[in-house]
Amino acid sequence: MNIRIILILSIFFLFNACNGKVPGADARKIPPNAKDRIKKNIEEGRGFTLMGSANKTNSGNFDFASSNELWRASLDTLEFMPLALANYSGGIIVTDWYSDGSSENEAVKISIRFLTNEIRSDALVVKVFYKNCSMQNNCKISDRSNELSNELTKKILTKAAVYEQDTRDKKKNPKYKNEALRTDQ
Predict the structure, then answer these.
(1) pTM for the full model?
(2) Domains along the chain?
(3) Which of 11, 41, 88, 184 has its CA 20 to 30 Å from the CA of residue 171?
(4) b/e for 58-83, b at 16 or more Cβ within 10 A?
């Protein structure tokens, strides 16, 4: 008797669960080609790829910071200052407060924000902040980004242009290409 009740309840739940509405069962909405189905599922957020899509040429590939001439030139220019923040993906470098020791009450802090990876005059926003402390806890911070920021921008862009030219020369040099091939193997 118990087996019959369990069997009837099981059949009842099976028929009730199906009720003709299986998700994704409408053949008119499903592309017949497997690649199209995969693409549609990924676009709708119902799938994933392990190694990235083969069709995408540059999507998802990140350059290392060392291959960006503007980034390298900025770090080389500010190498004498301690860094508080250097975030390549965020495109910002912020130094810590720095004093050369000539004046105990004054310090400088530099912030560089990258607007583009291209080496051009509007690629960077350089801000220079001065801190002047008359007493231990009485400090005044002011933004003096005019002259020094222009000089820093020129120096960074000049170094970046030199680095970019060096990279181009290395790519054109057949000796460098042969050495790169040997190291890859």
Answers:
(1) 0.57
(2) 65-171 (3.30.530)
(3) 88
(4) eeeeeeeeeebbbbbbbbebbeeeee
